[in-house]
Amino acid sequence: MGKQSTPQFSALNCIDLSNPDINQSVNLLKEACLDSGFFYVVNHGISQEFMDEVFAQSKKFFSLPHNEKMKTLRNEQHRGYTPVLDELLDPENQVHVGDYKEGYYIGVEKGEDDPQSKKPFYGPNNWPAPDVLPGWRETMEKFHQETLEVGKAVAKMIALALDLDANYFDRPEILGEPIAILRLLHYEGQVSDPSKGLYGAGAHTDFGLITLLATDDVPGLQICKDRDAKPQKWEDVAPLKGAFIVNLGDMLERWSNCVFKSTLHRVLGNGQGRYSIAYFLEPSLDCLVECLPTCKSDSNPPKYPPILCHDYMTQRYKDTHADLNIYKKQQA
């Protein structure tokens, strides 16, 4: 393997959630959404100490023996552990069977007696046994709740940037019962090689409204502002301690009639182990995603038909994850 090139980091706008000048923040966010679809969010209210604790607990889980992690293998509701190579995000370019990363999905906790619990993307989480990782569940549930509040604050700014009421997305039918998914990620110390189809995470766009990403200090995330360019130009996104890296999802691109774009991104491994935590904020399962009133006109009609969030999300997950039956065969 040849020598790794020095990363050329992309210049991303930084949104300070403690800034009293909301117009300044909204303008910075809008500029970012029109340019790269990626930006940093700082002073979001989650302490550095707690962020460090969540990363420490994430490492504890991924350090468990493989057979212990497989006890929490993801279920049909997309809760639990995803082994290395489980996910295939870029089948055209990934000549091997999938991403060189392992993950763990945590959704909004719904008890067995909750009517929502039988629906896709809801239901009880698939937690590790308390005696294996004491206090682990409590830490992750707290982080899930705190990050949801950060996501809703960002959604208010996005609404303002699209000339909507600040609470447009924070309505019962949209973020009232959100599909909010926390995903712990661990990239093993493999070196990626795009020329050989080897990636930590293949090139993809995210599915939903927005993604908030916390990372350790190991680089690896890259973005491509123009997915149709030949050849594609990839820029590195620098880790920023304590910040969330926020990017827009495909659902927001549909909603905004392509005013705001969902940006192609990937992860390249450089030989170092890397940990990150992604928080995917999607609307309620029954939300109808149709062109926003401020994003269409007689000369710019809607580019996409309305679609239920449930139908869209189910298909996207099915397209990118391995069939669970392969694990049942392996364990037989």
TrEMBL record:
Molecular function GO terms recorded: dioxygenase activity; metal ion binding
Keyword Metal-binding on entry: yes
Identification of the protein by name: Fe2OG dioxygenase domain-containing protein
Family statement drawn from the similarity comment of this UniProt entry: Belongs to the iron/ascorbate-dependent oxidoreductase family.
UniProtKB keywords: Iron, Metal-binding, Oxidoreductase
SUPFAM superfamilies linked to this entry: Clavaminate synthase-like
PROSITE patterns: FE2OG_OXY (PS51471)
